[in-house]
Amino acid sequence: MPFVRVDYMKGQYTKEQLGSISKTIQSVLIEQFNVPSKDYFQIYQKHEDFEFYYDPEYFNVARTDKLLYIYVTLAPGRSQLKKLEFYQKLSCLLSTTCSIRQEDVFIMLVESERENWSFGNGLAQAFELNNGGVQ
């Protein structure tokens, strides 16, 4: 049940590139975190250069204006090792399939309990499914 938000600087990516980025992120979520293929919720936000700030060398990583901020909000439960594998796999695949420098892939995983999600109809579907009904 991840929700993905990607922020980037205006003019750095085409519509086609964003589509490839989206498919790549989804494929890694499926492979690394066993996310169902229909669990596909992503949003992309472009920013003017005066709205998009970053340090080009923090932690000795050489970033450019093609930087992608990738936020993945998901239910807790993945091990530290799985998260580290996710970071590596996603940055590697974005590099090879979308020609994005690994240095320009900034990933944040944010865990949110299942009770904090409603997929529509005013229900907490993931929580209810996980707990055998509403409590």
TrEMBL record:
<protein>
    <submittedName>
        <fullName>Phenylpyruvate tautomerase PptA (4-oxalocrotonate tautomerase family)</fullName>
    </submittedName>
</protein>
<dbReference type="InterPro" id="IPR037479">
    <property type="entry name" value="Tauto_MSAD"/>
</dbReference>
<dbReference type="Pfam" id="PF14552">
    <property type="entry name" value="Tautomerase_2"/>
</dbReference>
<dbReference type="InterPro" id="IPR014347">
    <property type="entry name" value="Tautomerase/MIF_sf"/>
</dbReference>
